[in-house]
Amino acid sequence: MPRRRIRMTGTPEAPLRAALTALRTELGVPENFPPEVLAEAEQAAAAPLPQVPDVTDLPFFTVDPPTSMDLDQAMHLSRRGTGGYRVRYAIADVAAFVVPGGALDAEAHRRVTTLYFPDEKTPLHPPLLSEGAASLLPDVTRPAVLWTIDLDADGRTVAVDVHRALVRSQAKLDYATVQQRIDAGTAEEPLALLKDIGEARERLEVERGGISLNVPEQEIVERDHTYELAYRAPLPADGWNAQISLLTGMAAADLMLTHGTGVVRTLPAAPDGAVGRLHRTAHALHIDWPHHVSYAQLIRSLDPHLPHHAAFLQECTALLRGAGYTVFRDGNLPPITTHAAVAAPYTHCTAPLRRLVDRYAAEICLSPASPPAWVLAGLDALPKEMADGSRLAGTIERECVDIVEAALLKDRVGDLFDGCVVDVEERQPTVGKVQLDSPAVVARLEGGATPLPLGERLRVRLTQADPGTSKVRFAPA
After folding, report:
1. CB atoms within 10 A of CB 381
2. Contact, 217 vs 231, CB < 8 A?
3. Using an 8 Å Cβ cutoff, are 378 and 106 in contact?
4. How many whole angstroms separate alpha carbon 431 and alpha carbon 426?
5. Is pLDDT above 80 for 252?
6. Residue 22 burial by Cβ neighbours in a 10 Å radius (0-12, 13-18, 19+)
7. Percent of the chain clearing pLDDT 70 (strictly above)
8. Which of 94, 349, 466, 476 is disulfide-compatible with 448, CB 3.0–4.6 A?
């Protein structure tokens, strides 16, 4: 599900830093790794590479944010001689470093997922592994779980293979660089094919009724020696890259369901009431949604660069709430095996450096007929562990957005801003949310005497901005 994650570079000012530190303390976020965990990580990092097939001759590349060092995925794309494409997708082999039942394993179960703050992150695994020995960094040989997925000319899957291998990434790319090279026609074939395959998979997503929400992110950018919030709309390359991960997650889910044991990511279809509310929101935001146009079709017609479209996309995330992990074994398949937004069976298996469940999913796919005993023993506890970890991550992201917005606006209480009313509470129509044009803030709006005009532009006054309480409040001007 898309999130309003705040990204920043540089060192935050003291009040912001203090507020983020207090948040970590309040939520009990783990700090340093225990000595026994670090010792086990050092031993694992120094161990010889596993004796598995070597495919380091293939020029893999990674696509991540420019500052990322915990690189879970690397890919190599090619054309098949008989037509269509071959996707080789290497996933960091975390299980090659983590001994089941050991200190690293226990700590991963305690942390569950990497937690992101504007000023730092709290990793799932020690950086010695997650940003070092296990990360698919360029110009070093790494153990990986290698997926080879053959597609026909339309992008449909025709064959899947998964096994362990040694890989070597030759390039660490970011989304802007990928987009620039492909647009300029300077990308070599393995990279240029990302657009061809990504667009083919996007067409198939449309065909099956899947949904990818291109919700703009809030970013902290440095300008004139100060920081401000701005919106970043995803590039097409973001979507093409995501399609490779989705392709692999769908292949993994199919493999698990075929053999009767696994863990899939499930999301029920949205209730009619929720869709009806979105219709009313679309009308209020002056977005034309004819009755014959499906929700998925409408989403693809929106431009996240337009403020009222971006506001609607943010409201659409409400339909993606309720996703969870569903475990099954011994051929006893659950009633729901699909993810409504993907419109197909799907699992998380491509980010094991940052998410606990992915290590389990990979091991099941490597031995689907007889998964390792430690995987089977821990399978039933995974849904609750992941739900608890995801809940904490969501709380952190929401609180961080509020804290950063408050910190950057603390000296502007009383100022006037232009924005758009993007949400109104049904039971209290004088309360809602406003999305400012600039800076990139979405905050609570209250205090007016008349109902708020959903979807309309409005002049608002900042009435509160306190990083200590992480509260930002506006009132109609």
Report:
1. 11
2. yes
3. no
4. 9
5. yes
6. middle
7. 94
8. 476
